[in-house]
């Protein structure tokens, strides 16, 4: 299986999550790059696309959004996809007003998934968030392990779907 992981990272936490996913997919052919590095070539022969971004002002980063917008309308038809982000858990936010805004506006992963779906990708799993302990991190304990498990589950699901 050919997997492309497109990951933007501001403080390095999202990159660590993507690295954990790549390590978990050791039996697959995995290419990882930043959103601005993706050209049409790597997209031509992929079976799975994983897109990750830190949540910035309740959205994915601009490079992540720009990457998805550059895709042609049907470019991801037949491609399995996953969307993830890094975020601060709403219960860890001290401001009640900010917790309400988080509840209303959400996080980046769901927005990434929606954009991938509009490009005709098949979303294997629900968008996932991985938690940091503060604005700049670090990651909460166990998040890289959880990311690796999530990636392995997606590979198994994709392989099972391909057998049908």
Question: What is the straight-line distance between the termini?
Answer: 16 Å
- Number of separate helices: 6
CATH topology: Rossmann fold
Return the domain count. Answer: 1
Average pLDDT across residues? 93
Q: What's the Cα radius of gyration?
A: 15 Å
Can you identify the CATH class? Answer: Alpha Beta
CATH superfamily: Flavodoxin domain
Low-confidence stretches: none
Order of helices and strands: EHEHEHEHHEEH
CATH architecture name = 3-Layer(aba) Sandwich
* Count of β-strands: 6
Tell the overall outline. globular
How would you classify the helix and strand content by structural class?
alpha/beta
Domain Flavodoxin-like: 3-155
Protein name: Flavodoxin
InterPro entries: Flavodoxin/NO_synth (IPR008254), Flavoprotein-like_sf (IPR029039)
Question: How would you describe this structure to a colleague?
Answer:
This protein is of the alpha/beta class and 164 residues long. Helices cover 41% and strands 21% of the residues. It has helices spanning 13-24, 40-44, 62-70, 96-105, 108-118, 143-163; strands spanning 2-7, 29-33, 48-54, 80-88, 122-123, 128-132. Strands 1, 2, 3, 4, 5 and 6 form a six-stranded parallel beta sheet that branches. Helix 1 crosses helix 6. It is globular and about 45 Å long. InterPro entries: Flavodoxin/NO_synth, Flavoprotein-like_sf.
């Amino acid at each position: 299986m050919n997997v492309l992981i497109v990951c933007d990272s501001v403080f390095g936490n999202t990159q660590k999550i993507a690295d954990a996913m790549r390590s978990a997919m050791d039996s697959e052919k995995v290419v990882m790059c930043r959103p601005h590095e993706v050209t049409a070539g790597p997209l031509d022969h992929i079976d799975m696309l994983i897109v990750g971004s830190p949540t910035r002002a309740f959205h994915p980063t601009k490079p992540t959004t720009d990457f998805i917008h550059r895709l042609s309308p049907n470019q991801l038809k037949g491609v399995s996809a996953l969307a993830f982000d890094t975020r601060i858990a709403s219960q860890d936010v001290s401001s009640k007003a900010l917790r309400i805004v988080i509840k209303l506006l959400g996080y980046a992963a769901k927005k990434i998934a929606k954009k991938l779906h509009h490009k005709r990708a098949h979303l294997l799993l629900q968008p996932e968030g991985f938690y940091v302990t503060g604005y700049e991190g670090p990651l909460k304990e166990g998040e890289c392990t959880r990311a690796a498990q999530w990636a392995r589950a997606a590979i198994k699901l994709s392989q099972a779907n391909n057998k049908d």
